Amino acid sequence: MKTLRVTLIVNLFCCLSFLLQSQNHELGISLGTSNFLGDLGGANHIGVPFLEDVEPTLFRPAGGVFYRYNMKRVLSFEANFLATELRGDDKLIGNGPVFSDFWFRHYRNLNFKSFIASISVNVQLDLLRYKTKYKNHTYWTPFIGAGVSLFYMNPKANLGNGWISLQPLGTEGQGLPGHQKIYSRIQPNFPISFGIKYQYNKHWKLELSCVHHITLTDYIDDVSTVYVDPIELNANYDKEKAALVASIARRSVELDKDNLYGNVTAPGQQRGNPKNKDSYFMVLFKISYVFGTSHYDYNCFK
Q1: What residues of the chain score a pLDDT lower than 50?
Q2: Class for domain 27-289, per CATH?
Q3: How far is residue 140's CA from residue 92's CA, in Å, rounded to a whole number?
Q4: What is the pLDDT, as a whole number, of residue 295?
């Protein structure tokens, strides 16, 4: 039995070595930055899409590893692992005139951070062909891509004395009778990418890409629907937990000690917008090593 296991392992490595030498496979790393697009934080714009509502100070490092198989001259398949941290903070929005569009977000006064880790499978389409003739070739091509992914999130809020995980608390009444169930920390998303590839030499490839992750959840920042009624919290939780959930779910009182505009964040009032799902994007610089014989003509690199 031991001899059989050793034989199988040796054969496996032999097959892997053969594949890497005979096909166009790549292994690489990704380094870059990310930003969040959702209910919390953002620039001083309400209801505007994508980059117009990005808060520049909340860019965070992102990185990962990937494997790519170049199936055709213009078609490739890629498996990615990526990790980053996303953040949002209503305090970063300017406090404009009372009842102005972005005053409501500033008055809400919520914040979050979340570690994000994802695995994805993507298809990439090169928009130019790497030429195969010695005197008529190009080293680069723009590309577009799309895929499917699963990612892990764990939104936390800072109350001033440390970061607290929000998902178990049900800050909008999740898990209580008559409310939504508690959301999962593992969610699907659909990465859409575009960028440019550059073949540096026979084995090394460079790439700059932008990846927009479209999700099906509105709870990356733990904000989606309406303010929960503290009466429900007291009826279902012990006194300590009910007080914690109430204080972390409704934080406008930290800015409005006299509760002058308390009706804005009263039970049942809008806390988030469930019609717009959360998303995030990454800008990545990628470098990969091409194993074995490529479908590209490397005479041009001699």
Answers
A1: 4-23, 47-48, 132-136, 294-302
A2: mainly beta
A3: 40
A4: 47
